[in-house]
Fold:
Amino acid sequence: MQIDLMNCMCSNGTRTEPEHLLTSRMAHPSDTVVTVGSHKIGGGSFTLIGGPCAVESEEQLFTIARAIKDAGGDILRGGTFKPRTSPYKFQGLGAEGIRLLVEAGRWVGLPVVTEITSIRNLSLYEDVDLIQVGARNMQNYDLLSELGHSKKPVILKRGFSNTLEELLLSAEYILSGGNPNVILCERGIRTFEPMTRNTLDLSAVPVLHELTHLPVLVDPSHAAGTRQYVAPLARAATAAGADGLMIEVHHQPELALSDGPQALLPEQFSQLSLDVRAIRNALR
Amino acid sequence: MQIDLMNCMCSNGTRTEPEHLLTSRMAHPSDTVVTVGSHKIGGGSFTLIGGPCAVESEEQLFTIARAIKDAGGDILRGGTFKPRTSPYKFQGLGAEGIRLLVEAGRWVGLPVVTEITSIRNLSLYEDVDLIQVGARNMQNYDLLSELGHSKKPVILKRGFSNTLEELLLSAEYILSGGNPNVILCERGIRTFEPMTRNTLDLSAVPVLHELTHLPVLVDPSHAAGTRQYVAPLARAATAAGADGLMIEVHHQPELALSDGPQALLPEQFSQLSLDVRAIRNALR
Amino acid sequence: MQIDLMNCMCSNGTRTEPEHLLTSRMAHPSDTVVTVGSHKIGGGSFTLIGGPCAVESEEQLFTIARAIKDAGGDILRGGTFKPRTSPYKFQGLGAEGIRLLVEAGRWVGLPVVTEITSIRNLSLYEDVDLIQVGARNMQNYDLLSELGHSKKPVILKRGFSNTLEELLLSAEYILSGGNPNVILCERGIRTFEPMTRNTLDLSAVPVLHELTHLPVLVDPSHAAGTRQYVAPLARAATAAGADGLMIEVHHQPELALSDGPQALLPEQFSQLSLDVRAIRNALR
Amino acid sequence: MQIDLMNCMCSNGTRTEPEHLLTSRMAHPSDTVVTVGSHKIGGGSFTLIGGPCAVESEEQLFTIARAIKDAGGDILRGGTFKPRTSPYKFQGLGAEGIRLLVEAGRWVGLPVVTEITSIRNLSLYEDVDLIQVGARNMQNYDLLSELGHSKKPVILKRGFSNTLEELLLSAEYILSGGNPNVILCERGIRTFEPMTRNTLDLSAVPVLHELTHLPVLVDPSHAAGTRQYVAPLARAATAAGADGLMIEVHHQPELALSDGPQALLPEQFSQLSLDVRAIRNALR
Structure:
């Protein structure tokens, strides 16, 4: 019951009142800015993250990395340890994928982000600029606590059935461990509507901006699940005030090993980059 | 189960295949344009509807009507027969409310829209330019069929737990009766997230534009439930490609008889009108 | 947002506090018993309702009616005006269906129940013992108010996305009109789970029994959507303390004009009737 | 989107078709029976698990353990590593809690079950008879894979927003690692209804029994969230055919460090134990 969850912020412990939470804007009114390489996330800047769902090969990754850079992308994404619903599906290239991703980032001059699925692999992420905690692990408190002991920037994605309050309390696990570099990401929630993979909850953007000082990104690719809905939702997220976007891009989506149908083509990503800038300028 | 619903479009009857549905873009590729007074909805134009949740008094309505007109609004809204969850809450001014609304519209030179809750009242709506079917009546097929025998333009709001396919099939009830003047409206769906009154499903905009030729509006007021989230969601809906917005406005929301907390102040509506135009220009 | 809905019971009007609601057990501690023909619903008795989703023909209906009676059923159900998602699907036999249903009930000696979808048809229901308001019309307040002016017993089904509080407030529309003969019915809510047509919310039974004095039935057929899940859910509802069950039965489900896959065969209904009695005896 | 999930069972890889899944009843028609101490779970027997939400102290635990044993309980539960939404809430007694739990189990002669939240703690569970994977970790594939390399029996709880198919595929992670001793547990899903903490989905019982040979338990305590709804839901789960129940019990719930409001009192647990037996006998 939601009311139960609300109580955890309102109960009478010293640190559980909203004004004492580290994630709360009541406690820290000014925007947190997270530095990733030479790029800044939050505080009025806009961050465009692009790349394939999964790192599949050197050729695939380097082709897409070049396209992301050329389109004005700020950070290169690519899955390496993939949490798949079925144990029999492609699980990612693992350590070799991380090596390729870091290399591709350096080649095009972009910081890189990839997901972590196990604390046992943490040492493999040393050269990764930004670590992603995926939706399925949003309440893996063991992983969150461990990331709290690092200073590495973390993107924390909302679980597909977690409330915004739960997202903030999961972020609190990282911040209370000593790591202030947390970025939140809305990526769609689970509802009864089958036309889209998930329902993108864009009210998360203004609600989170009100409640917390942490930057808020939006991933419309996983919410849409279908290529042609990604750009309209990305434009919408921008107009709603998101601090950035995380977009899946593939130059040969029909050959992709995961989530091909939701990947933008490089030229679509390029057009989106222009649209996003235009919207930001219009609302200035 | 969603699959059951999908079947109703795919089953083997002659009229139940998508290509034969009157609402389907496969059957009618070009956009439907609905004329309301001298204003056109759909087909590339943008429609800004504003006004109070409920018509409360002549003074209240005329004050707000003037503000809507001055801000560049295209249509004046105001509830007169209000479907309230509790029988003991304000149920609207009824026929007298419709009389006031029509008068206010003429005074400021705007067409008017108000909700219908009973086929018995249909004759009262003769001077109303646009009739709204609310979320709770989206599957009141008796009402839909009756409106199909009229030529009066109808805004059909998505039920707060209805799929987009069900919305289209409800529209089909009106079109198949002979009335082609139907406008769809996304207003938020029911989910587990308590921070907003409902979860605005903006993917409805690109999905509906792909599936149907009917115009698609967005009502962010009922989805947000809270004033400060309305404008970001309205901007987002515009950037997602909506054909228009339906916004609740009140000059004294703290005195409103219903839904005061989600009403924009006139000056906020005015700013939103400017923002919406700026976004539309930027994306042209 | 649920909190908004909760408020409608807690706000400061005289009749909107729970202790003043006509549906509230605080106001009326003892169970309401609704008399239908010579059968009593609520107050410790158990009511087994069975019959086809839709009345299709005299032969079909009379065959099934006999089976319901022989199995120990208390009331015969059969849809006559069917609210269908698509306007091109079988809409029921209408007035002729009501005539057949009443005749079949008399022939086997059972009271009958059928759904109403329009206030315009109310006069057709004179010989019907029990009127059902379906899930899609749970918030059709025009229809509810009209039924409040009758004394005819009403089964009010929970909308597939309505809270229990909304269900009670819809019942309040009928009671406050002067008709105390209301029976509530849980029939499944809409969730993300696709294996069943809806998710049967059996917590509704103890929650409603705590909050209200009205009888509470359960319809597992529409929730399950698939024959083999109906009996386990029906047994579960009985063990949870439901005052009765509403079950779809068809002797030739593969030929049924609607909802065939969820209909029990007569012999399955017969076995269920025995199981239900055994559970009730065991818990006495 | 559900259809995406369904595909993972229907896609054209060798091991992803239902008939090849290790969890599938198509592949293994007869019921799996999991042995825990001298107790057998599944295959027609019934398992009653009881105990406190969290192990709080020796006195608390031993008092409750005695009550569980005396009431006819089969297994003693008690949380030791608690995954809490807020980092500032009681996180469990950890290793010391496990030591107390094992000791209490031996003292009363019952096997014990407790939740694991981190693979790093696995060695602490050596004397624990049955390991629970909680709802929040249902898709923590790193943890599931690790448990697949053990032979220790595992209770896998359904995530509060996971489909039944996802639950089965998570179980597949454990089975495919070599551990066949998996027990599934329905504990409520997240919906819009606020009267209960979650919505118990009892259709999970017949659906899972059809799809898989693994035993299926039900935890009505977390679904209900409120003491008075637990017993009706537990009786319902029994009548639906569950292979057992997992119930939170506390002798001083008002002093409990977590989830006190949903704990049964020992005498209520005792009565429930009788009711469950009566229902099982009645349906034999």
User: Anything to note?
Assistant: Chain A touches chain C at residues 2-3, 161, 190-192 (CB under 8 Å). The longest strand of chain A covers residues 47-51. Strands of chain A lie at 34-36, 39-41, 47-51, 75-77, 112-116, 130-133, 154-157, 182-186, 216-218, 244-248.
